[in-house]
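Weekly structure sync, notes
Attendees: PL (lead), two postdocs, one rotation student
Agenda item 3: pending single-chain targets
PL asked that the sequence for the first pending target be pasted directly into the notes so everyone works from the same version. It is reproduced below exactly as submitted, 309 residues in total.
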Amino acid sequence: MSGRIVAIAALAALSLATAGSTGAQTRDDDAAGSINLGARAGLAAEAPVGTASPRDASPFELSVRGGFASDYIYRGVTLSDRKPAVGAGLEAALGLLYAGATVTSVKLPSQPAAEITMSGGVRPKLWDIDFDFGWTYFLYPGETVPIGVAAGIDYWEAAARADTKIGEALRVAGGFAYSPNVSNTGAWSKYAAFGLGFDLPRNTLPQNVAASVTGSVGYYWFGNQSAALGGFPLPAYINWNAGVTFTRNLFNLDLRYYDTNLSKEDCFVFTGDPNAAPGGSIDPVRNPQGLTSRWCSATFVAKFWFALQ
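Predicted structure, written out during the meeting:
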């Protein structure tokens, strides 16, 4: 069981862009929402929105964000046990460099008080492509470490992301992330994703309101866990999301559908859901009791946040 409990760390393991990124760059108003590629930025947008203003106009920038969501979803899987969550983030940027932190409420099997991220990186631009190369450390203070496990689920990861705009309204994004020891399970983890966004014409919207329709698909896979956790890899899976984001001044509302191709049995293996139910197919190695979880099933999420820049 300790292996299953620690396996939930994989839900918080990889970010496609720097998870602490709260978008400190100054943006225009052409886009309302970023393309969700699987990164975590508390409950705010995960990546810069719109087009960055010239760097020399403001070499130092600071942003603060906070919000709440009906469910904290990460790559199609809940991190809040299908319950509401709150979060906040702070980021400072100087030229191409940035550093930030986020704190978000979670409900995981190891019962941490919160999820905290600390991140840093560089955001260069080449031609019309915006890049983000970052490093993030994830902390879960106050967790209950399973018996027989020497450490908790804290870990670090490196990630890269690229965004560009095609024409006036279409946006494209892609990225990759890697951790050598995801959530202290002994397994490496990799994530690759691709997304599209379309900015709705302003003349079709109320005054001072911007809106974007965005969607993405990603693939998440792992190496073998340590022998103490069973020695088998966590289940690889595909996840996808689609939704619309509305922005008016400082305020943002995102309405989004999430899903994965994980079976209910593999969802339990992946998450270690403490409320898992019996009745599923038995796997003698990975799931000998045939337990099932609803943490990876299709869901709709409403998210609201403010952004001060």
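Discussion points:
- The two ends are 45 Å apart (CA to CA).
- Residues 264-271 form the longest helix (8 residues).
Action: rotation student to compare against the earlier draft before next sync.
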